[in-house]
Amino acid sequence: MDRAVGRREVTIRDVAAAAQVSKATAARALGDYGAVRGEVRERVRRAAAQLGYRPNAVARTMSTGRSQTIGMVVGDIQNPFFAQAARGASDAADAAGYELILSNSDEAGATETKAIGVQLDKRVDGLLIAPASSSRADALRAVTDAGRPLVLFDRTVPGLEADAVVADNRRGAIELTRLLTDAGHRRIAFLSTIEHPGGYRRGDIISISSVADRVAGFEHAMRDAGADAVVRLGAPRDDVEQVAVELLTGEGAVTAVVASDSLIALDVYRACRDLGLRIPRDVSLVAFDDADWAGLVEPGITVMSQPMHAIGAEAAGILLSRIGGAGGRARVRVFDQELILRGSVAPPPEPSGRP
Amino acid sequence: MDRAVGRREVTIRDVAAAAQVSKATAARALGDYGAVRGEVRERVRRAAAQLGYRPNAVARTMSTGRSQTIGMVVGDIQNPFFAQAARGASDAADAAGYELILSNSDEAGATETKAIGVQLDKRVDGLLIAPASSSRADALRAVTDAGRPLVLFDRTVPGLEADAVVADNRRGAIELTRLLTDAGHRRIAFLSTIEHPGGYRRGDIISISSVADRVAGFEHAMRDAGADAVVRLGAPRDDVEQVAVELLTGEGAVTAVVASDSLIALDVYRACRDLGLRIPRDVSLVAFDDADWAGLVEPGITVMSQPMHAIGAEAAGILLSRIGGAGGRARVRVFDQELILRGSVAPPPEPSGRP
DNA sequence: ATGAAAGCGCTAACAA
DNA sequence: TTGTTAGCGCTTTCAT
């Protein structure tokens, strides 16, 4: 009756007793390591099954120092990009017997730091992070300082010696932009939601490397074409449509836009519709990430697709190998992106491209 | 030099030594519980900050039995429904100082059982589960048997005494279906991907309660209207489009379809497009879940929107209160769904509804 | 208000 | 091959 209320968990001690061996032997039989006589092993296993024994992973972590858990910090799991990367990481972790603890940073440094702290306190064996800003090397160094491997995904942090898995965003942006300039566009906007206090001016340092690379590629292609680059960062997530409207109307209206992700493309699309602007007749639109709806609307949206699941899986794979003790310098693995041509690009309305 | 390599972690022992107090006092000061003299508390805190002390959450779990972590098992995090529910749960957990461990079940019983086992072994304080099947009460009972609270979301499991947070799917299905029958449709399909070996026949028990409720509502509304209900379950996730094509063509082609989630609706939409069928002129389409693209295509898709973030947050809230010791019988909390009328419903092509 | 010591369940040296 | 013992870092009686 004394162990009634909480129905005390069955521990390895109970199993050992039932199988008439010592705790150590029971542990060896169950964890199969060390040496145990076949017959004894069987006896222990039966006892364990019989009692419904489940090892206490916390205790195991306590004594081994390893938790079989990895942490992952994403911007927002509701963003399909992160959801797919998370799934990729989860699959890879799972296959290796690891579990995944997930946190959202909302792309805010403070939130990210807190999340990392908690994960570290929980003794994750390693961390997967899409850093909210490339100026946060210090915050990230807390991970390696704690002696745990860290791999970045989607973004790198200059000055931080860490593995990273990213897409070739510069190249992707160049290809996407060329589509537009080749079609004759002379004034094109690049639109992103990442914060950039004070508004972007050519040459500014952009805090998220993937976006920085895209902007660099965009500007490069625009310069090549001798066209006007309008880079608009910091559009509020829930008000992108308004920003798009501003870009698309008035004096310096652009005739095409490059959306930095599928969520942004969605709002640009909405803005066009509300403005009565037809794609691609009145405005051309291209975007990063192949959202499910991009091929659904008529005409479809031309996009640069990133292998998101693979990026997540690869990042987890690298992390796992580091956890397993793999040495060597940090490397950044760059995935190619895939251009998916659909019908959202056409020459601009006033054919400035034709003499 | 002996503690060089792994640069041993700073423990409460080190803090205690630095502050010249006992471990117990240091722990009290840091965890602020028990009684500690103000001046001593300060001294300890300074020492901790100085040394960069971080409590070891694992050790704490070890001695308190509580991990400040909750587990969540979803079908697939890439499904926007689950992504949003996960975000809701994560937000609620976070606000209460809890972390979330996430697993995907892929709607497979075995995977789910394994995930639950791992989570339990990790000593999560409670579990949030969208059960893969309502016939899995036993597998779920492992959670309560382990003395940890369990709350289901999106689905219930008859015969299992557990809190649950769901949407009013029966009502939702009725409203959606009535839209169709009122428009004159006499042969309508309900399409879902959930497995149902052998194909569905009226009266069969459907393994996922949310779908079962939708089918019940659908059949109810169809009977009311004296119309032909075609219930098609078990469409393979990556081949829904083909199933939709079959439904939409040939002898007994339907003139309208109710898609059980937004992913399915997407494929039905694709099927229509490939078949050259116009929505809503040739076929009417309604669906559950308000995907971002539903309002984007032309015309928009009429949907029944579920408060996914709220469902996740509420589920986590209930779980947290149970963890906090809240007693009382298990309750199921039902959220209303919201009908969003757009333009995807019209009378069927052969106006059988008009005399 | 503070300290000493036990203990959470497991693994890992070390003995036997 | 097996058992004994000593921790892992923290919280928590129980004394003082």
Task: Describe what is shown at a glance.
Chain A has twelve helices and twelve strands. Chain A has 355 residues and is an alpha/beta fold.
Structure description:
- The structure is a homodimer of 355-residue chains.
- Chain A is α/β, with parallel strands linked by helices.
- Chain A has helices at 12-19, 23-30, 38-51, 57-64, 80-95, 109-121, 137-145, 169-182, 209-225, 240-248, 262-275, 308-323, and strands at residues 69-74, 99-104, 126-129, 150-153, 163-167, 187-191, 228-232, 256-259, 284-288, 302-305, 332-335, 338-340.
- A six-stranded parallel β-sheet of chain A has the order 2-1-3-4-5-11, sandwiched between helices. Chain A has a six-stranded mixed β-sheet with strand order 7-6-8-9-10-12, with helices on both faces.
- In chain A, helix 5 links the parallel strand 1 and strand 2 (99-104).
- In chain A, helix 2 crosses helix 3 (38-51).
- The longest helix of chain A has 17 residues, at 209-225.
- Chain A is elongated.
- Chain A starts with 11 loop residues before the first helix and ends in a 15-residue tail after the last strand.
- The interface between A and B is large, with 50 and 49 residues.
